[in-house]
Structures are given as structure tokens and as C-alpha cells.
């Protein structure tokens, strides 16, 4: 008895073909993880915050800026350097001279010493005063600390001037021929103390310019009696 007509012919019938297709389908399904490229079929990652910068994405680090203050907790930076206002001498004090007052042939003028700086200034002593000729050279006019006809001098007393505060002194001289040998001066050079910055004040009027000797009181603060 002969077998089926398709036996030995090399061709498969419909049933065999169906079984083969089923086997292949199962095989491909089981190998899907190996055939799909990595990343395909997976959910898209959530977009990152567009306003957030990651340090590892920067080409170079930002340059650091020195603020003078340490990053260590509790650390303080260097103390700021006090500044002197424009027009104020480096000493932090400036002298001034008022109007000349006259009485019975005597002359007197008020001197001021003002703290124009940014920190307290200690005053203890007398102004530095010189008489100058028209060329600006010193004249041989004696300058004496002490009392005069125009005011008494209780002596030097330490004064601490806060910024903006002023100390005062009285400068006096005799300006008549009866006072002795007179020298004609053209200006007074005044400084807060010897060695500090001086200012030059012209003497106006013929009688004011006649000098015999100068007497000055010590610097006194407004609250000192």
C-alpha cells in the first residue's frame, strides 16, 4: 500500500506549513529582546528643566571674584580703609582764620582747627604760627604761647575731636608803633601743630600788617572751660 501522494516529494502539505509557521512565530516572539535595537520601544525620558545648569555640562568653570570676605563661617574680611574727603589734608585736620578784631591798638584773630577726616583726632598743644614777608619767607617775629591783652591762656589740655568738630585758639599782637620795634608782614602761615600741613592767610590793612610779637592760646574744644 502506498503512502500519501506528497510523501518523498520534498513538498510539505498545508498542515505542515501551518505548523512550521507557528513554530517560527513563537521563536521570533521569544527573541524579540535580542532583535530590537537598544532604546527602541522604551518610553521617552522626561525632558530636564531648561533653566537648570549642570556643572558637568560647562566647558570651563566661571572665574572666581574676590570680595575680600572669606567663605569660612564667621570670618570677616579686611577692615575698610578710611578715606579722607576731597580738600581735607592727609592729617585729617584743617586750620582756619577768622576776621581780625581790634581793641586799643591790639589785634586778635580767632583760629580754628577742624577735624575734616573720618576718625577721631587728638589735639594737645598750640598752633604753629609764622609771619611771612611778601616773598613768602619767614620774618623774625617772636611767637609766644600764653595769655595776651585780648585773651587768657589756661594752658594746653587734651581735646579729642570727633569728625566735624572744631577746636579754637586766639592769636594776638600789638599793631601800633608804641608797642616797640614793628615788622611789616604780608601773611601768616598757620598749621595745627609743628610739622603738619600749613595754610597761608594774607594780612589785609596797613595797621594789621605791623607786628611786634605774636601771642597764642592753646587749642581748646567748644565744651572745654
Structure in words:
By secondary structure, the protein is an alpha+beta fold. The protein has a domain at 93-221: Immunoglobulin-like. The protein contains three helices and 13 strands, in the order ααββββββββββαβββ. Strands 1, 2, 5, 7, 12 and 13 form a six-stranded mixed β-sheet that branches. The protein has a three-stranded antiparallel β-sheet with strand order 4-9-10, with no helix packed on it. Strand 1 (93-103) and strand 2 form a beta hairpin. The model is unreliable at 1-12, 14-37 and 45-84 (pLDDT under 50).
Indicate the CATH class of one domain: Mainly Beta
Structural class by secondary-structure content: alpha+beta
The sequence of SSEs as H and E is: HHEEEEEEEEEEHEEE
Q: Helical content, roughly?
A: 10-25%
For this entry, give a set of tags.
3 helices, Immunoglobulin-like, alpha+beta, three-stranded antiparallel β-sheet, six-stranded mixed β-sheet, 225 residues, disordered N terminus
Chart the SSEs and their pairings.
Layout: H1 14-30, H2 32-35, E1 93-103, E2 106-115, E3 121-123, E4 128-132, E5 143-145, E6 159-161, E7 166-174, E8 183-184, E9 187-191, E10 199-202, H3 206-209, E11 210-211, E12 214-216, E13 220-221
Parallel strand pairs: 5-12
Antiparallel strand pairs: 1-2, 2-7, 3-6, 4-9, 7-12, 7-13, 8-11, 9-10
